[in-house]
Design brief:
By secondary structure, the protein is of the alpha/beta class. Helix content is 35%, strand content 23%.
């Protein structure tokens, strides 16, 4: 089973090396690493070119794009693996056997989606632990979602549910999670940390971004006919509180 890991980059020279190293340190052999760069100007492209020259399992493109989700869709189209996952340019796979465990879950059972836990770090300090749980379809209306960077999906599922909706600027990941998890696909939860992520991100960088995220989440729920609008959005936000208490 080939697993495609997609990393999108833009002026990521300061953080990208750690992400690349975490992929190449994986014990699972059949990994395709796809890098989609948005025409960086800070040395990122040179890093990618050197990385691709050194490792045969790397494919990349560097050209202007229309945002994060446009780049993710580009990566999905480039992917040739049976299973697709994402690793942001400032994140790392938690352990050398993380993908080994993902692959084992797909190979041992007839599942379509596998996901695990996520930790947020500030430097070497863990500040938030997102522990997920086994999926229950009823939980979607109470704001449940798995950590998007830990979600690995069969490519055939993306072919069926369609790409990320590029109309959204912040919440297209929530949209595609709802589309996948509400469509009856078989899922499996791995109770371990899969990805370590630096705190920050487009949806949390300032108050305006958080308000935009709230509004887009509401639109996502209405689009997918799930939950009770802002009540479900509120439940989704409240779920984050316990992540800081672990």
């Amino acid at each position: 089973m080939k697993i495609s890991i997609i990393t999108i980059t833009y002026n990521s020279a300061s953080t990208l090396p750690r992400a690349l190293a975490s992929v190449q340190s994986q014990t699972y052999a059949d990994i395709e690493h796809i890098l989609v760069d948005g025409a960086s100007t800070d040395g990122t492209v040179a890093l990618i070119e050197a990385y691709a020259a050194k490792h045969k399992n790397v494919r990349y493109v560097s050209e202007p794009d229309e945002g994060i989700y446009n780049a993710l869709n580009k990566g999905i189209r480039m992917a040739t693996g049976d299973v697709i996952g994402f690793l942001h340019s400032d994140d790392v796979l938690f352990a050398p056997d993380s993908i080994e465990h993902i692959a084992a879950a797909f190979e041992s059972t007839e599942v379509d989606v596998v996901y695990g836990d996520l930790q947020y770090c500030r430097g070497n300090r863990v500040v938030r632990h997102w522990q997920s749980n086994a999926f229950n379809p009823r939980s979607l209306k109470y704001g449940w979602m798995p950590p998007h960077p830990t979600v690995y999906v069969r490519k055939a599922v993306y072919e069926q549910v369609g790409p990320y909706d590029e109309w959204f600027r912040i919440s297209a990941d929530y949209d595609i999670i709802l589309r996948i998890f509400s469509s009856g696909y078989k899922t499996q939860y791995i109770p371990e940390v899969i990805v370590s992520m630096e705190v920050g991100g487009a949806s949390n960088k300032n108050t305006k971004a958080r308000l935009s995220k709230t509004q887009e989440d509401y639109i996502v729920l209405k689009k997918n006919h799930i939950g009770c609008g802002y009540l479900t959005v509120a439940c989704k936000q409240l779920r984050k509180i316990r992540q800081f208490l672990r």
